[in-house]
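CATEGORY: protein folding

GOAL: derive structure tokens
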Amino acid sequence: MSLAANKEQDTEPALEKKNKTRKSVFVPSFLIVGGGAVLGIVNNELLTEISMNGFTGSLKGLGWLYQIISLVALVIVGIVTFSKIGNVRLGGEEAKPKFPFRAWFAMALTGGIATGVITYGVNEPIIYFGNIYGEMANTGVEPGTSTAAFFAMGRSLYNWTFIPYAMYSLSGLVVAYMYFNRKQELSVSGTLTPLFGNKVTKGVWPGIIDTLAVLAIALGLASSLGAGLALVGSGIATTYGVSQGPVVWFILAVITTGLFTISALKGLNKGIRRMSSLNATVFYILLAVLIVIGPTLYILNSTTAGFSYWLENFWGWGLDPGVRGGEALVMWWTLYDWAIWIAYAPLMGIFLAIISYGRTIRQFMFINWILPAVFSILWFGVFGGTALHWQENGTVDLISTIEESGAVAGLWTFLANLPLAAIIIPVVMIVLILSFATAADSMVRAISTVCTVNIRYDEEPAKWKMLLWAISIATVAFLMVTFAGGAQGVDGVKYLAALGGSAVLFVFVLQVCSAIKMFFVDKIER
């Protein structure tokens, strides 16, 4: 059956469908997000303690599962990309893509980055290199040495390239294949039908499964925006001497929320596509500038050596639940990262599926797995390599900056020591705002899609729904930063979001099992 025929069979008016809300998902998600914000304001320490204890308990108990499922996801995407399965076209042989490659990649890349690579491109390699929180204690590597620099680069690339993007890509592929080729609903629960049949899309299960996915990403966006407000605010204070406070945070929140709300309301083609293309272009320019003005040879050498260090330790790092590398390195970096990536994966997968109609599975993986991983290699190589070079030769002491001011503080000190700093610093501030906005607009759209009954991939969710979620996420972020302790005020929501990711872990495991069954056991639907 063609997609067009599927549309014709749907006799319910489009407008009515757009406004028909899945109350089983929308209501509990909205209430829990609001409840978390209220508890964070009333007693942020209690919220932080409850969510952190639950989250750390899950990492200690399920670290082995995070590591195994991440490697399984990597193997599966590798097989489907480079085997005959990669020739299957999403939507059928006659399906035609809506977006050109460049725009498609910009949306896929910026939709999944948020502010992570900008925040940690400098800080993470330096933290490892300096053993700031005890990361190197169990590695046998002496901090501050050339070997430590290679280790720092390799571990950063491990955490930010092929493995995490395999998680996003696998979720997106499962959604796209089940929706376009097997005609299931555009939902997280629909991806599990290869395992449980259509009964998983009926009764209480769809509400539970999709609510978990919505909660994880809504709380994740709130904590990410809150951390972004504090980070940009600290940059303004450090660079321009304007003290952080409610006024600065409010202005930044209004600007950021305005951008991603307008982008989401304008839709995929006029809003999200244009903002993503702008953001991606600025990324490319920053990379080109840093390659030219940075220590180019050191960047190339350290990135290559770091990647070799990762490959050399692939199985040791990939199967360590924390008992070898230690809690400081494995649990609070790799496993925490996996929890966040997995928390985002199901809803991110829906967005990636929506923009992939008409593409082959191989093209899907090239855009959503390989190219974003290569981009991260370049980003960490350029920014992290330059930071390591400066630390080694004494140009600037980023280790001391981070020890004195926190895990993300090295970014502004790093930027202040660049040539053209007066231009680059405000550009990076703008990029931070744009990066969050381009992630949030796609995710607000995905959240609203899951909260809508029987919506098609080419339909826009109701504008009131997207507006309500956008304002709610921004309000949570602003209140937590302003009234719950500044940068530390987002900790409660951050750990609550990560705890949600632990719950989504089981959904992701089932999606991986679905992928195995649909591609290697069932008949391939072309």
User: Anything to note?
Assistant: The chain is about 75% helix and 0% strand.
